[in-house]
Amino acid sequence: MKHLFETNKFSKAEFVAYLNQKGRNHPYYKYYSPKYKVDNIVATKSIYLSSGKDWNDTKDSKKIGKNCFATCFSCTKIENVAMWMLYGGINGDGAMIDFSKSVINNIVDSTKSIELGAFVDDEFCRNMTLTEGQFTIEMIDIVYSDKVDKSYNLRRQDELVLGIDEKIYEMISGFCKSYSWRYESECRMIIKVDKKIKIDDSINTARVLLSDRDLEEIKKNITLSPLYDGKHKSYKQSALKGEVCWDLCKNCKKVK
What we know:
- The chain has helices at 2-5, 12-23, 35-44, 58-61, 81-87, 101-110, 166-172, 212-219, and strands at 29-34, 46-50, 68-74, 94-99, 113-120, 123-131, 135-141, 143-148, 151-156, 159-165, 176-178, 186-193, 205-209, 222-224.
- By secondary structure, the protein is of the alpha+beta class.
- It has a domain at 11-143 and 187-224.
- Strand 8 and strand 9 (151-156) form a beta hairpin.
- The N and C termini lie far apart (54 Å).
């Protein structure tokens, strides 16, 4: 990244190409979620990408275009307590899939069709199917930014670049998030649907079928939340089991 930024002279295309290349080369892609969603991925042999309408970063949510769908991964080697707390189920009933680079790249390179639809009562309902040429799939790293006077400091993983010109930042801001989110170490999978295809407002999810080989690898790399009460016949115990404790609803008022 630094070789692009040092002169403050680079194009948006160069910036995106760099983030795409980096996004496909992480050894770890951790997906934290309530356990029922992970169970559904395994049961349906599919991963699901969202339109972003319900994301917790409202600024980021607005950057996802109508014809785009995305899902997010944390590219850290070890488990992240903050990610467990935010995305691993409010009561500790969560799980995490650690996707390998080979599985991620196989999804990007080998997916021939996708389904678009929405979840109704926790079941995906297909509205339309798209085939090759009607969509693309890409990986892209997220950059974290901090404004200092009239310039920006940018960080991606272990790379730090200081003093990016404000005009340059405006050009690339669609791929940046506030420093406050840096703990996520985020890489994003994005599906872009051909703009000529009209997508109904009721559609908020894209479904990508997994190969049998990728599914078997995924099933070997699922970890339970450190607060999960019990065992699972195939999911692994968290390395943080017995070391952390939180109750996000400890003082919540119960609804009668």
